[in-house]
Structures are given as C-alpha cells and as structure tokens.
Amino acid sequence: MTAEVVAERSTGSAARQAWCPPLVAVVASALLGLWVTLDVVLAGPWLRADIAVADRVDALDLRGSTIPNAVLWLLSQTGGRATILVVIGLLTVYIMRERRVWQPLLRVVVAFALLTVVVYAMKIGLGRTAPGYGSSVLYDNGRSYPSGHSVNAVMWWGVAVWLARSYQLPQWLVRLFTVVAVAAPVLASVSMLALNYHWLTDVLAGLALGLLLLRVLHLVFSTRLGDWGNAPRQGRARGRSRDRVLAARSGPRG
What we know:
It is built from ten helices and no strands. It has helices spanning 3-16, 23-42, 46-60, 66-76, 81-99, 103-126, 148-166, 171-194, 200-220, 241-247.
C-alpha cells in the first residue's frame, strides 16, 4: 500500500467534515422545520406572522418599482438552481481535470437527486399557494412550501465549500465560496420575501431543510461511497506526486 493511499485514508474523515453542519445546528433545524410544518398544516400562530409580513411587503410594492425589483431578482439568483448549477458545474469540471478524480461529480449527482426528490415531494404534497394567490391554501396547485431558493442556497453553496476545501483549492477561492455560503441563504431568502414570492414560513422551512440535507449528504459520503473516484487515474497522474497529494480528501490543516 502506497504512502499516498495511507495518507488519503487517514485524512479522509477530516475532508468529509469540511463545511458539515454541526449536530446541534442540525437538531435545531429539524425541530424548527417540524414546528413550522405542523403550524402550516394546522394554521397555527405562524400563519399570523406570514400574513403580517406579506401585507407589509404588499404595502411596499417593491415588485412594482423597476430598480428595486431588478436588484432583488439578481439577489434571489444566489438561490436560483440554474445559476448555482452553472457555478457548481464549472467547479466540478475544474477539479476533475486538475486532480484527475471523479468523486466531485458523484457528490453533485447525489446532492441533486436528494434535493430534488425531497423538496418536490414536500412542494407537491402540501400544494401550498404563494402570497400572490391572496391567502395560504394547502393541497391546491401551489408549490410554495418550502422555498426552493432557500434550500438551494444552503445546500449547493455548502457543497461548493466542501469541494473547495476537500481538494485544497487556492485559499482565496475557498474564502470566496465560504463568504457566499454564509451570505447567499440570507440574500436569497430576504429577496424571496421582499418580492412576495414566498411566505415567511416557506423561507424558514427552506433554510432548515437545506441544513438537514447537507448533513445527510455528508453522512452518505462518510460511507464507502466517499472513497469512490478519488484515486488519481494512471497515465497522466503517474509520477506526479503533487497531483496525488492534492487529490487526497483532506481538509485544510491548521
């Protein structure tokens, strides 16, 4: 067994923990998500908060103003699936080419499948109408709950940081993705509220669900699945110890 393989196995656990939500945050998110969901189904106290926020946004009428509407739409794209997947796609291709591994693609595919199945199961299952409908109605043709933009912002930018740290990309890039991963959920959620596309509880549920799914993704790849596709391919990688070291799934030391 080569020294590189031993090093990779010994440091793999640390790599998989890169940007993994801590257990306390996951538990808090699960409790918040459960509380909000039950409240939405039972039309509890959170409904009053939903209506109050929606009424306030209606009074501001930001969607009716050209510049504020354009700015908010741009900010909302920090949680837009198409926008994020372009960035994630470029990042994945770069890592695969430079490190000669295909594990990043596997992470992205599993994340996409997990997010799509869970989020759309909830959207279709509850069928909640958006604020623009005039009232919160369940089991209709709505797709408001939870906010997909909020889930996307937490999940996908978290994956971006995970990939950047795992494959030891330049520090400026790691810092950039880290800042975006912190800011994007806030920007996407606030913009969705300001544009009156979502209720307050839609956004809260989306943020909580994003943290939960990101933790689940880390758990999935803490198994043998996390070892697949990480050994540099022969040929171009032969004799390039630098590539083998950089391909190791190790988080930043220090």
